[in-house]
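If you are new to this repository, start here. Below is one unmodified record pulled from the training split, so you can see the exact layout before writing a loader.
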Amino acid sequence: MKLSNINYRTLAIDLAKGFGIALLFSFFIYAEYYDLTNDLLNSITALFAFYFLLKAPSRVLVSAGGFIGLLWFYWIGYSFEYYNVGWMTPIITLFFVLLYALFFGAIAFSKNPLYRAGLLFGLSFVEPMDWNWLQMELPFINSLFGVEKWQYALVLLSLSLFIYLCSKNELKKFRFAALILLVGAIDFSTPQLSEPDLKIKLYASTILQEEKWVKKNRQQIIADNLQVITDAIREKYDLVVLPESTFPLFLNRNRHLTMMLKNYSRHIDIITGALYIENDLHYNVSYHFSKGEVRIAKKMVLVPFGEYIPLPSFIRSWVNTTFFDGASDFVTADKPTDFTVKGVKFRNAICYEATCEELYEGDPDYLIAISNNGWFHPSIEPTLQNLLMRFYAKKHQSIIYHSANMGGSGIIKADR
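And here is the target side for that same chain:
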């Protein structure tokens, strides 16, 4: 098409409509970020977002997907600054814009709202590039509706039937009957699980990522961590949890610090993040110090493009060499690890793992999650992470104890 033939007014209108749909689809994230969450308002905006996705013209769907990718994931490229390739930040942002433009653009293969509903439901099983932070049911997490697949299916069926019946003159009078299906998607469940009889301290550190791995800062960071532990002992906590990599070193190579933590653990259980090296392989792990002993929990699910490259080996090697100074991918564990503190079992989760279905296998009652959100500060990332953990806590009736650096610490459960 020649540039002279482009109708810029129509293009601008389509982009504006797409942006409007993206705002509706993303409203719950920013409402949570600004502490303005309202279940009724979230319900209305989510319903209208899916209504317009089922009805909008193809070009609007593509632009809506692009804007959703931007509003949800503009922050991902921030981490590249710490690999000395900060120039890639806008490229990574553009990648996610294009990725989700194509992702939602898939709905445009049909104009029939019932077919589109089927496509939207199918997309809820798709994780492009192993990236699972766009859960299609997530806009309903702080709403009147549930987040189970069958409840999501009922919402799509109700809205698509409504649109379909509106398009048929002979059936138009029945259109509002389709909305009755929405009642079936309302969440009437009540959380059954209560918190364990343990006094747990969650450390919310505030160490900037650019300062965390500077060698001259290491001793002060270690001293601050040890002070948190000694304060927790004095305050008679049963367990203290420190964030991911809060000790910025290979802890198993530091015998003196390890012995100190073992001694502290005779008075309190300690779970903390640090690096671990074994047979020249690097691991991102949690250390559990208890009764003078230490146990290691290796990470099972890595962050795509952060801790591993989800591409064929020959391309992966080139990417690591070109953009990450030759660093190799982290190594993973084969299965989740559970820690036991005074008879209470906790599933261990390190950052991204706490937002992955694999970690919730067996519906664990309690999880200890540790994160370092300094990679993406300042942004909505801790808010989105918290909402995703609430999503899984609700689906699996779990309670999550989250200790994070630079935002996100707290107790996360289905009833908030």
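Two things worth knowing about this chain: The chain has a mean pLDDT of 92. The first strand starts at residue 200 and ends at 202.
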